[in-house]
Design a protein that fits this description.
92 residues; 24% strand; binds zinc ion
């Protein structure tokens, strides 16, 4: 089991919240979803099932890493390295 970085509770899994923006055509009388389908925007957020806070996870690969024992440490390490790399580039 891993600990949530926000509420520090032990969690067995994560909730994936999918937020979709859908365009529905309205001609003044009827709503039409089928004929006028526009590209939909989708936002995915990985959320702690205990505190419902959005966690710093990008995709299911990262989620798997997170849920595997020290996944969180790994993600944090990677982020720190990324920030370090960025800072290096900025100072040069
Ligand atoms: Zn939590």
């Amino acid at each position: 089991m891993v600990k949530c970085p926000k509420c520090y509770k032990d969690i067995k899994g994560l909730n994936l919240m999918v937020i979709k923006i859908k365009t529905i055509y309205f001609d003044g009388e009827n709503f039409d979803e089928d004929e006028y389908l526009y590209p939909t925007d989708t936002t995915e957020e990985w959320v702690c099932p205990e505190c419902e806070e959005v966690l710093d996870i990008e995709d299911d690969g990262e989620a798997t890493e997170f849920l595997e024992n020290d996944g969180l440490k790994k993600i944090v390490k990677e982020k720190i390295n990324m920030i370090k790399e960025k800072n290096k580039k900025c100072t040069k």
